[in-house]
C-alpha cells in the first residue's frame, strides 16, 4: 500500500530559521502523503506563523518530534539522507537524484528513513552531512541554483509519492545508532592491527565503513557476522605477533 511505503519516511529539519517555512514544509509533506516531521531545534517557533502557512496541514506540526541534535534525530533510522547541492573535500563522493532516491527506498529494509534538510541561509554543515549515509541533490539551473526549503521538500516528497506503489516489507535492518556502534568496533580492530597511518585516514575510513553498512541496510544477524570478520582478523594478528615474539626469544 502507498501508506506503508510513505509512513516509514521522516522529514528532518535542522535549525529552521523562519517558522513560516516549517508551515510550508508541513503543507508540502501532507500533499504527498508524508506525515512524520522531526525538528532539530533549540528555540521556540511562532505557533501562529507556522499554522498560517501550514493551512490544513497543521496536524503534522502538532505531532512533530523535537530533538536537540541531528544525532538524536537519526538514532533509530535505518537509512539517512542529507539534502544538499554543495560538493567538496569533506562531502560525499556521490549523490542520488530525487527520482533515484525514491527507487532506492523500494529496496530498502524495514525501518525509519530520515531525509534531512538544512537551514534556509546555508543548508547543512559538513559534519551534519557526514552523519548521514547518503546525499540527495536536486538538479537546478546554474543561473540560479538555490531552492527555498519548502520547494526542496516538495520536490523530494513528490518523487517519493510517485514511487509509492505497493511496498513489500523485507528484513528488519539495524538502526543508525547500532551502525555507529559497529563502526567503532570495526575501527578499533583496524587500529589494533596497525592499519591506520595517520589521524585523517582513521576519520575517513570510519565514515566510509559507516556509510557502507547503513546503505546496505543489514539485519542484526548479518551485522554480527560482518563484525566477526574484523574480530577474527584482530585475533589472528595478536596470535601471529605472539608467535613471532617466541621465535625471537628462541633465536
From TrEMBL:
This is tRNA (cytidine/uridine-2'-O-)-methyltransferase TrmJ. Its main location: cytoplasm. It is found in: Cytoplasm. Residues 9-158 form the tRNA/rRNA methyltransferase SpoU type domain. One of its GO terms (biological process) is tRNA nucleoside ribose methylation. GO terms for cellular component: cytosol. InterPro entries: Alpha/beta_knot_MTases (IPR029028), RNA_MeTrfase_TrmJ/LasT (IPR004384), SpoU_MeTrfase (IPR001537), tRNA_m1G_MTases_N (IPR029026). Belongs to the class IV-like SAM-binding methyltransferase superfamily. RNA methyltransferase TrmH family. It is an enzyme of class 2 (transferase). Homodimer. Catalyzes the formation of 2'O-methylated cytidine (Cm32) or 2'O-methylated uridine (Um32) at position 32 in tRNA. It comes from the Bacteria. GO terms for molecular function: RNA binding; tRNA (cytidine(32)/uridine(32)-2'-O)-methyltransferase activity. Keywords: Cytoplasm, Methyltransferase, S-adenosyl-L-methionine, Transferase, tRNA processing. The gene is trmJ. It catalyses: uridine(32) in tRNA + S-adenosyl-L-methionine = 2'-O-methyluridine(32) in tRNA + S-adenosyl-L-homocysteine + H(+); cytidine(32) in tRNA + S-adenosyl-L-methionine = 2'-O-methylcytidine(32) in tRNA + S-adenosyl-L-homocysteine + H(+). Its EC number is 2.1.1.200.
